[in-house]
Backbone:
């Protein structure tokens, strides 16, 4: 669609959003989602135009209107999880894809390094962990490490650690996206060498059925946190028509929402690791059900559902 036609079709709506008061918070949220969709479309097809700059300003005004009232009701939280966060996933799908690609490449490096260097696994995982796991394998309980602590203590420790790591990955994006790539390198190589270690012991399938009960959500959160860090750095690297400070401020807001949106996923992953993974002899069908359910949720909520919302809003505007 040509820019002139795009403006002609939507200018009346945009002016009404500027001039007319909203009937309530739900209508304000709908306007924000609508303008965000228009802004995403304009950024894609007219990135350097005045229309894009105008829509960015209008989106900022609506955003401030949403957040200026400190007293939040339950609808605000529902709107965030149902619309705002998924639309951010769609808007920054490229950054999330880049994070996934980085992670997979570094995982492959970890696998190949462990395969061709016998000392690499000990270098990455540490002698203590490898020796302990070797002892557990000899005892017939290769994943006994998940039974060493009480479930409640383990849950809180893992939840706190993974939340800290995810937020650190996000904040590191301020270093022009170098920080998230470094953390992808560190975690990807560790996961790759970790999995190769168990496959080399003939425990590959068993490790997937046990460890990835919690690992599916946990690693997904790490990848998304890396994407949030890339979003943060994107504003500094590519300000486009905005000042660098304004672009950074906008990307920081969006990246923060994505990072904070990961907390429930991290908590569920920690619950699985603390309370479920320890049952290493659970039925295969149950393990596969948890794995498949976790993976399907991530694919649906981060990829499929955001795309459907975006297309539905685009259709309603046509």
Residues:
């Amino acid at each position: 669609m040509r820019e002139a036609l795009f403006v002609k079709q939507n200018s009346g709506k945009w002016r009404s959003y500027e001039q007319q008061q909203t009937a309530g918070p739900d209508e304000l949220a709908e306007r924000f989602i609508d303008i965000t969709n228009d802004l995403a479309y304009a950024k894609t097809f007219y990135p350097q135009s005045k229309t894009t700059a105008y829509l960015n300003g209008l989106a900022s005004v609506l955003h401030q209107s949403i957040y200026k009232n400190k007293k939040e009701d339950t609808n605000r939280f529902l709107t965030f999880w149902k619309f705002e966060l998924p639309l951010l996933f769609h808007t920054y799908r490229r950054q999330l894809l880049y994070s996934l690609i980085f992670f997979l490449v570094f995982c492959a490096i970890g696998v190949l390094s462990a395969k061709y260097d016998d000392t690499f696994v000990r270098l990455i995982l540490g002698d203590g962990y490898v020796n302990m796991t070797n002892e557990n394998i000899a005892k017939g309980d290769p994943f006994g490490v998940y039974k060493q602590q009480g479930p409640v203590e383990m849950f809180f420790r893992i939840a706190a650690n993974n939340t800290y790591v995810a937020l650190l990955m996000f904040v590191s994006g301020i270093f022009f996206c170098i920080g998230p790539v470094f953390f992808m390198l560190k975690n990807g190589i560790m996961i790759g060498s970790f999995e190769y270690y168990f496959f080399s012991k003939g425990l590959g399938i068993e490790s997937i059925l046990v460890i990835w009960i919690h690992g599916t959500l946990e690693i997904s959160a790490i990848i998304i946190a890396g994407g949030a860090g890339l979003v943060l750095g994107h504003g500094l690297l590519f300000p486009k028509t905005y000042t660098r400070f304004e672009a950074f401020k906008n990307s920081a807001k969006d990246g923060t929402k994505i990072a904070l949106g990961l907390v429930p996923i991290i908590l569920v992953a920690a619950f699985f690791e603390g309370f479920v993974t320890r049952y290493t002899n659970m039925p295969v069908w149950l393990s596969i059900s948890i794995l498949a359910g976790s993976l399907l949720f991530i694919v649906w909520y981060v990829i499929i559902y955001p795309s459907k919302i975006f297309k539905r809003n685009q259709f309603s505007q046509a």
